[in-house]
Amino acid sequence: MAADQARRGATVEAAARTHLEQAGLRWLASNVRYRGGELDLVMREAGREGALVFVEVRYRRSSAFGGGAASVDAGKRRRLLHAAQLYLSQHDALARLPCRFDVVEASGEPPRLHWIRDAFRADDC
């Protein structure tokens, strides 16, 4: 069961990455893990001053109990912010860029993707 969930997660994250790349974002990293938090995708908008985008990918078989974005609660937002801060501390050249947090929620089979730009801000954490 856990292996199936891991495969599903990898498939959905790959689909989210492709979706975002087709929308003009450039991939920088996937599954960046730190103690206390993980970044599913790190992307960058086009242009010299393009924003750094930290993307949380959430999959739900059904949206009957709320979509994936609803599961990004205050605790999850704090963990994402902490992981983003650690990422920026290791990438000086990116630390000066504007940053935002997006969520890509996926549901159903095959998964349908819904990209929520600027889903939350650091001030919300």
TrEMBL record:
TM region positions: none
Signal sequence, renumbered to the chain: none
Highest rank taxon of the organism: Bacteria
InterPro entries, sorted: Restrct_endonuc-II-like, tRNA_endonuc-like_dom_sf, UPF0102_YraN-like
NCBIfam families assigned to the protein according to its UniProt record, in alphabetical order: PRK12497.1-3 (NF009150), YraN family protein (TIGR00252)
Similarity remark: Belongs to the UPF0102 family.
Protein name: UPF0102 protein VA603_05375
UniProt organism field: Stenotrophomonas capsici
